[in-house]
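VWA domain-containing protein
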Amino acid sequence: MEPWYSLHWFDRALWEQFRFANPLALYLIPTIGFLFALRYYLQHDSQQRLNMSLGTGRGSQSDRIQEDPVLVNQRLVSLLRFLLPGSLFIAMTLLLVALARPQLVQTHREEQSEGIDIMLAMDVSSSMTEADLPPTRLAAAKRVAQTFINGRKNDRIGLVIFAGEAFSLCPLTTDYALLKQYLSELNEQMIPASGTAIGDALARCINRMREPMNATQDSTESGKKRSKVIILLSDGDNTAGNLDPVTAARLAKAFNIRIYTIAVGRAIRSSASASTVDEGILKTIAGIGNGSFFRAADAGRLRAVFTQIDQLEKAPVRTLVYEDVQDQYRVYLYWAISFLLFALFLKNTIVGNVLQD
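Structure:
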Protein backbone atom coordinates (compact mmCIF):
# COMPACT_ATOMS: atom_id res chain seq x y z
CA MET A 1 0.00 0.00 0.00
CA GLU A 2 1.34 3.40 -1.00
CA PRO A 3 1.81 6.05 1.74
CA TRP A 4 -0.84 8.77 1.94
CA TYR A 5 1.50 11.48 0.68
CA SER A 6 2.22 9.59 -2.54
CA LEU A 7 0.90 11.05 -5.80
CA HIS A 8 -0.31 7.55 -6.61
CA TRP A 9 -3.64 8.47 -4.97
CA PHE A 10 -4.33 10.97 -7.75
CA ASP A 11 -3.67 8.50 -10.56
CA ARG A 12 -6.54 8.32 -13.04
CA ALA A 13 -6.38 4.52 -13.25
CA LEU A 14 -6.82 4.29 -9.49
CA TRP A 15 -9.80 6.66 -9.50
CA GLU A 16 -11.51 4.49 -12.11
CA GLN A 17 -11.36 1.62 -9.62
CA PHE A 18 -12.96 3.58 -6.79
CA ARG A 19 -16.51 3.00 -5.63
CA PHE A 20 -17.91 5.96 -3.71
CA ALA A 21 -20.19 5.24 -0.76
CA ASN A 22 -21.60 8.79 -0.82
CA PRO A 23 -21.27 9.94 -4.44
CA LEU A 24 -23.59 12.93 -3.93
CA ALA A 25 -20.79 14.72 -2.08
CA LEU A 26 -18.83 14.91 -5.33
CA TYR A 27 -21.55 17.05 -6.93
CA LEU A 28 -20.73 19.82 -4.44
CA ILE A 29 -17.25 20.31 -5.91
CA PRO A 30 -18.47 22.47 -8.86
CA THR A 31 -20.46 24.51 -6.34
CA ILE A 32 -17.28 25.24 -4.38
CA GLY A 33 -15.55 26.30 -7.58
CA PHE A 34 -18.45 28.58 -8.47
CA LEU A 35 -18.34 30.26 -5.03
CA PHE A 36 -14.61 30.91 -5.30
CA ALA A 37 -15.04 32.38 -8.80
CA LEU A 38 -17.90 34.57 -7.56
CA ARG A 39 -15.83 35.78 -4.62
CA TYR A 40 -12.92 36.65 -6.90
CA TYR A 41 -15.22 38.50 -9.30
CA LEU A 42 -16.88 40.57 -6.54
CA GLN A 43 -13.61 41.29 -4.77
CA HIS A 44 -11.88 42.23 -8.02
CA ASP A 45 -14.57 44.78 -8.98
CA SER A 46 -14.75 46.36 -5.50
CA GLN A 47 -11.02 46.98 -5.15
CA GLN A 48 -9.75 50.52 -5.78
CA ARG A 49 -6.57 50.78 -7.77
CA LEU A 50 -4.12 53.62 -8.35
CA ASN A 51 -2.49 53.35 -11.71
CA MET A 52 1.14 54.39 -11.69
CA SER A 53 3.33 55.01 -14.67
CA LEU A 54 6.71 53.35 -14.26
CA GLY A 55 7.90 53.65 -17.86
CA THR A 56 8.67 56.32 -20.40
CA GLY A 57 5.45 55.80 -22.28
CA ARG A 58 7.18 54.61 -25.42
CA GLY A 59 6.30 51.34 -27.04
CA SER A 60 3.66 48.84 -26.10
CA GLN A 61 3.25 47.27 -22.69
CA SER A 62 4.65 43.93 -23.86
CA ASP A 63 7.73 45.67 -25.16
CA ARG A 64 8.24 47.41 -21.82
CA ILE A 65 7.91 44.10 -19.93
CA GLN A 66 10.44 42.47 -22.18
CA GLU A 67 12.81 45.42 -21.74
CA ASP A 68 12.38 45.70 -17.93
CA PRO A 69 13.06 42.44 -16.01
CA VAL A 70 11.83 44.10 -12.83
CA LEU A 71 8.30 44.26 -14.25
CA VAL A 72 8.51 40.58 -15.17
CA ASN A 73 9.45 39.69 -11.61
CA GLN A 74 6.62 41.84 -10.29
CA ARG A 75 4.15 40.04 -12.54
CA LEU A 76 5.37 36.65 -11.30
CA VAL A 77 5.22 37.76 -7.67
CA SER A 78 1.69 39.05 -8.16
CA LEU A 79 0.61 35.56 -9.24
CA LEU A 80 1.39 34.32 -5.73
CA ARG A 81 -1.81 35.93 -4.51
CA PHE A 82 -3.68 32.98 -6.01
CA LEU A 83 -1.87 30.51 -3.75
CA LEU A 84 -4.11 31.12 -0.74
CA PRO A 85 -7.52 30.75 -2.46
CA GLY A 86 -6.13 27.90 -4.57
CA SER A 87 -5.00 26.03 -1.45
CA LEU A 88 -8.39 26.57 0.19
CA PHE A 89 -10.20 25.34 -2.91
CA ILE A 90 -8.06 22.20 -3.13
CA ALA A 91 -8.50 21.56 0.60
CA MET A 92 -12.28 21.86 0.40
CA THR A 93 -12.37 19.68 -2.71
CA LEU A 94 -10.39 16.96 -0.98
CA LEU A 95 -12.67 17.23 2.05
CA LEU A 96 -15.63 16.51 -0.21
CA VAL A 97 -13.77 13.58 -1.78
CA ALA A 98 -13.12 12.19 1.71
CA LEU A 99 -16.81 12.72 2.55
CA ALA A 100 -17.75 10.71 -0.55
CA ARG A 101 -15.77 7.80 0.94
CA PRO A 102 -13.78 6.34 -1.95
CA GLN A 103 -13.46 2.58 -1.62
CA LEU A 104 -11.40 -0.10 -3.27
CA VAL A 105 -13.60 -3.19 -3.60
CA GLN A 106 -12.32 -6.66 -4.42
CA THR A 107 -15.07 -9.15 -5.22
CA HIS A 108 -14.54 -12.85 -4.60
CA ARG A 109 -17.03 -15.41 -5.91
CA GLU A 110 -17.14 -18.88 -4.43
CA GLU A 111 -19.32 -21.66 -5.75
CA GLN A 112 -20.28 -24.37 -3.31
CA SER A 113 -21.91 -27.64 -4.32
CA GLU A 114 -22.41 -30.82 -2.37
CA GLY A 115 -22.09 -32.81 -5.60
CA ILE A 116 -23.50 -36.26 -6.26
CA ASP A 117 -22.14 -39.80 -6.39
CA ILE A 118 -22.16 -41.48 -9.80
CA MET A 119 -21.16 -45.05 -10.60
CA LEU A 120 -20.60 -45.95 -14.24
CA ALA A 121 -21.28 -49.62 -14.97
CA MET A 122 -19.71 -50.46 -18.34
CA ASP A 123 -20.38 -53.68 -20.20
CA VAL A 124 -17.12 -55.08 -21.65
CA SER A 125 -18.50 -58.40 -22.88
CA SER A 126 -17.81 -59.71 -26.37
CA SER A 127 -21.18 -58.41 -27.61
CA MET A 128 -19.89 -54.86 -27.06
CA THR A 129 -17.43 -55.35 -29.92
CA GLU A 130 -20.20 -55.07 -32.51
CA ALA A 131 -19.55 -52.30 -35.02
CA ASP A 132 -23.08 -50.91 -35.32
CA LEU A 133 -21.77 -47.96 -33.30
CA PRO A 134 -18.48 -47.26 -35.11
CA PRO A 135 -15.82 -48.20 -34.44
CA THR A 136 -17.37 -50.50 -31.79
CA ARG A 137 -20.06 -50.20 -29.16
CA LEU A 138 -17.48 -50.22 -26.39
CA ALA A 139 -15.24 -47.61 -28.04
CA ALA A 140 -18.19 -45.27 -28.61
CA ALA A 141 -19.36 -45.73 -25.01
CA LYS A 142 -15.88 -44.98 -23.66
CA ARG A 143 -15.55 -41.81 -25.72
CA VAL A 144 -18.94 -40.44 -24.69
CA ALA A 145 -18.39 -41.39 -21.04
CA GLN A 146 -15.14 -39.42 -21.00
CA THR A 147 -16.96 -36.38 -22.39
CA PHE A 148 -19.60 -36.79 -19.70
CA ILE A 149 -16.92 -36.79 -16.99
CA ASN A 150 -15.39 -33.61 -18.39
CA GLY A 151 -18.64 -31.77 -17.73
CA ARG A 152 -18.98 -32.77 -14.09
CA LYS A 153 -17.83 -30.67 -11.12
CA ASN A 154 -17.62 -31.59 -7.44
CA ASP A 155 -19.06 -35.03 -8.18
CA ARG A 156 -17.53 -38.30 -7.09
CA ILE A 157 -17.51 -40.79 -9.95
CA GLY A 158 -16.57 -44.47 -9.88
CA LEU A 159 -16.28 -47.23 -12.46
CA VAL A 160 -17.49 -50.85 -12.49
CA ILE A 161 -16.90 -53.16 -15.44
CA PHE A 162 -18.69 -56.39 -16.09
CA ALA A 163 -18.99 -59.28 -18.48
CA GLY A 164 -19.52 -62.79 -17.08
CA GLU A 165 -18.32 -61.30 -13.79
CA ALA A 166 -18.31 -57.80 -12.32
CA PHE A 167 -15.32 -55.93 -10.93
CA SER A 168 -14.94 -52.52 -9.32
CA LEU A 169 -12.23 -50.88 -11.37
CA CYS A 170 -12.23 -47.42 -9.75
CA PRO A 171 -13.87 -46.31 -6.47
CA LEU A 172 -15.74 -43.03 -6.13
CA THR A 173 -13.24 -40.28 -6.76
CA THR A 174 -12.88 -36.70 -7.92
CA ASP A 175 -9.65 -37.52 -9.74
CA TYR A 176 -11.22 -37.30 -13.19
CA ALA A 177 -7.90 -37.70 -14.98
CA LEU A 178 -7.37 -41.10 -13.35
CA LEU A 179 -10.92 -42.14 -14.13
CA LYS A 180 -10.59 -41.20 -17.80
CA GLN A 181 -7.35 -43.16 -17.98
CA TYR A 182 -9.17 -46.25 -16.72
CA LEU A 183 -11.87 -45.70 -19.32
CA SER A 184 -9.35 -45.41 -22.14
CA GLU A 185 -7.83 -48.77 -21.18
CA LEU A 186 -11.11 -50.71 -21.27
CA ASN A 187 -11.29 -53.64 -23.68
CA GLU A 188 -13.28 -56.82 -24.12
CA GLN A 189 -10.39 -59.02 -22.91
CA MET A 190 -10.25 -57.58 -19.37
CA ILE A 191 -12.79 -60.14 -18.10
CA PRO A 192 -12.31 -63.60 -19.62
CA ALA A 193 -15.60 -64.98 -18.28
CA SER A 194 -18.23 -64.91 -20.99
CA GLY A 195 -21.74 -63.58 -20.54
CA THR A 196 -23.23 -60.40 -19.06
CA ALA A 197 -23.76 -60.19 -15.30
CA ILE A 198 -25.94 -57.08 -14.94
CA GLY A 199 -27.17 -58.00 -11.45
CA ASP A 200 -23.63 -58.45 -10.13
CA ALA A 201 -22.60 -55.12 -11.69
CA LEU A 202 -25.44 -53.31 -9.90
CA ALA A 203 -24.46 -54.99 -6.64
CA ARG A 204 -20.85 -53.79 -7.03
CA CYS A 205 -22.08 -50.25 -7.64
CA ILE A 206 -24.39 -50.37 -4.61
CA ASN A 207 -21.59 -51.67 -2.42
CA ARG A 208 -19.36 -48.76 -3.49
CA MET A 209 -22.09 -46.21 -2.82
CA ARG A 210 -23.25 -47.49 0.56
CA GLU A 211 -22.32 -45.11 3.35
CA PRO A 212 -21.14 -46.32 6.73
CA MET A 213 -23.63 -46.01 9.57
CA ASN A 214 -21.85 -43.06 11.22
CA ALA A 215 -21.67 -41.20 7.89
CA THR A 216 -25.40 -41.72 7.39
CA GLN A 217 -26.15 -40.33 10.83
CA ASP A 218 -23.93 -37.29 10.23
CA SER A 219 -25.61 -36.52 6.91
CA THR A 220 -29.06 -36.87 8.47
CA GLU A 221 -28.19 -34.52 11.33
CA SER A 222 -26.77 -31.90 8.98
CA GLY A 223 -29.80 -32.15 6.68
CA LYS A 224 -27.62 -32.80 3.64
CA LYS A 225 -27.48 -36.07 1.78
CA ARG A 226 -25.61 -36.67 -1.46
CA SER A 227 -27.67 -38.00 -4.34
CA LYS A 228 -26.57 -41.36 -5.72
CA VAL A 229 -26.86 -42.45 -9.33
CA ILE A 230 -25.94 -45.55 -11.30
CA ILE A 231 -25.51 -45.28 -15.08
CA LEU A 232 -25.47 -48.73 -16.64
CA LEU A 233 -24.43 -49.25 -20.27
CA SER A 234 -25.04 -52.65 -21.78
CA ASP A 235 -26.59 -54.49 -24.69
CA GLY A 236 -29.12 -55.81 -22.20
CA ASP A 237 -28.43 -59.54 -22.28
CA ASN A 238 -28.32 -60.75 -18.66
CA THR A 239 -26.78 -64.18 -19.17
CA ALA A 240 -24.49 -64.61 -16.16
CA GLY A 241 -23.93 -63.66 -12.55
CA ASN A 242 -25.18 -64.78 -9.15
CA LEU A 243 -27.69 -61.95 -8.50
CA ASP A 244 -30.89 -61.29 -10.36
CA PRO A 245 -30.95 -57.74 -11.85
CA VAL A 246 -34.46 -57.08 -10.50
CA THR A 247 -33.36 -57.97 -6.97
CA ALA A 248 -30.31 -55.71 -7.34
CA ALA A 249 -32.54 -52.86 -8.57
CA ARG A 250 -34.81 -53.22 -5.54
CA LEU A 251 -31.76 -53.16 -3.29
CA ALA A 252 -30.61 -49.95 -4.98
CA LYS A 253 -34.02 -48.40 -4.38
CA ALA A 254 -33.74 -49.28 -0.70
CA PHE A 255 -30.51 -47.29 -0.57
CA ASN A 256 -32.08 -44.33 -2.43
CA ILE A 257 -29.92 -44.97 -5.49
CA ARG A 258 -31.38 -43.94 -8.83
CA ILE A 259 -30.63 -46.09 -11.89
CA TYR A 260 -30.30 -44.96 -15.49
CA THR A 261 -29.95 -47.71 -18.08
CA ILE A 262 -28.71 -47.28 -21.64
CA ALA A 263 -29.23 -49.95 -24.27
CA VAL A 264 -26.21 -49.62 -26.55
CA GLY A 265 -26.48 -50.73 -30.18
CA ARG A 266 -29.10 -52.14 -32.51
CA ALA A 267 -30.52 -55.64 -32.61
CA ILE A 268 -28.40 -57.65 -35.05
CA ARG A 269 -29.25 -61.09 -36.33
CA SER A 270 -27.12 -62.59 -39.07
CA SER A 271 -25.27 -65.78 -39.88
CA ALA A 272 -22.06 -64.25 -38.57
CA SER A 273 -23.54 -62.69 -35.43
CA ALA A 274 -26.49 -63.49 -33.23
CA SER A 275 -26.34 -60.54 -30.90
CA THR A 276 -29.59 -59.14 -29.54
CA VAL A 277 -30.41 -56.15 -27.41
CA ASP A 278 -32.77 -56.99 -24.56
CA GLU A 279 -34.58 -53.78 -23.73
CA GLY A 280 -37.03 -55.45 -21.36
CA ILE A 281 -34.68 -56.07 -18.46
CA LEU A 282 -33.08 -52.63 -18.78
CA LYS A 283 -36.49 -50.93 -18.74
CA THR A 284 -37.49 -52.94 -15.67
CA ILE A 285 -34.33 -52.02 -13.82
CA ALA A 286 -34.73 -48.32 -14.60
CA GLY A 287 -38.38 -48.37 -13.51
CA ILE A 288 -37.61 -50.00 -10.18
CA GLY A 289 -34.66 -47.67 -9.61
CA ASN A 290 -36.73 -44.49 -10.17
CA GLY A 291 -34.57 -43.64 -13.16
CA SER A 292 -34.99 -43.72 -16.93
CA PHE A 293 -34.28 -46.05 -19.81
CA PHE A 294 -32.59 -44.81 -22.97
CA ARG A 295 -31.98 -46.36 -26.37
CA ALA A 296 -28.71 -45.43 -28.10
CA ALA A 297 -28.74 -46.92 -31.56
CA ASP A 298 -25.99 -44.64 -32.87
CA ALA A 299 -23.15 -42.48 -31.55
CA GLY A 300 -25.13 -39.25 -31.84
CA ARG A 301 -28.00 -40.65 -29.80
CA LEU A 302 -25.56 -41.95 -27.19
CA ARG A 303 -24.11 -38.45 -26.78
CA ALA A 304 -27.62 -37.03 -26.47
CA VAL A 305 -28.45 -39.57 -23.76
CA PHE A 306 -25.44 -38.60 -21.66
CA THR A 307 -26.26 -34.93 -22.19
CA GLN A 308 -29.78 -35.53 -20.91
CA ILE A 309 -28.54 -37.40 -17.87
CA ASP A 310 -26.04 -34.63 -17.25
CA GLN A 311 -28.88 -32.11 -17.17
CA LEU A 312 -31.09 -34.27 -14.97
CA GLU A 313 -28.44 -34.98 -12.37
CA LYS A 314 -27.17 -31.59 -11.30
CA ALA A 315 -26.44 -30.82 -7.68
CA PRO A 316 -27.62 -27.37 -6.55
CA VAL A 317 -24.84 -24.80 -6.61
CA ARG A 318 -24.72 -21.96 -4.12
CA THR A 319 -22.79 -18.90 -5.21
CA LEU A 320 -21.28 -16.90 -2.36
CA VAL A 321 -20.02 -13.40 -3.13
CA TYR A 322 -17.48 -11.82 -0.80
CA GLU A 323 -16.51 -8.17 -1.05
CA ASP A 324 -13.29 -6.93 0.48
CA VAL A 325 -13.97 -3.22 0.98
CA GLN A 326 -11.09 -0.90 1.83
CA ASP A 327 -11.99 2.69 2.68
CA GLN A 328 -9.45 5.21 1.42
CA TYR A 329 -11.07 8.43 2.67
CA ARG A 330 -8.30 8.95 5.26
CA VAL A 331 -5.75 9.52 2.51
CA TYR A 332 -7.70 12.44 1.03
CA LEU A 333 -8.54 13.74 4.49
CA TYR A 334 -4.82 13.94 5.27
CA TRP A 335 -4.24 15.76 1.98
CA ALA A 336 -7.06 18.21 2.79
CA ILE A 337 -5.62 18.93 6.23
CA SER A 338 -2.20 19.48 4.68
CA PHE A 339 -3.58 22.07 2.25
CA LEU A 340 -5.53 23.77 5.04
CA LEU A 341 -2.37 24.08 7.12
CA PHE A 342 -0.57 25.42 4.07
CA ALA A 343 -3.34 28.01 3.59
CA LEU A 344 -3.05 29.07 7.25
CA PHE A 345 0.68 29.43 6.79
CA LEU A 346 0.16 31.62 3.70
CA LYS A 347 -2.35 33.75 5.62
CA ASN A 348 0.37 34.80 8.02
CA THR A 349 2.90 35.64 5.33
CA ILE A 350 3.25 38.34 2.70
CA VAL A 351 1.32 36.16 0.29
CA GLY A 352 -1.80 36.35 2.44
CA ASN A 353 -1.49 39.96 3.48
CA VAL A 354 0.36 42.40 1.23
CA LEU A 355 -0.30 40.56 -2.04
CA GLN A 356 -4.02 40.35 -1.33
CA ASP A 357 -4.31 44.15 -0.86
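Strands lie at 18-20, 102-113, 117-123, 156-162, 166-173, 228-234, 257-264, 292-296, 317-327.
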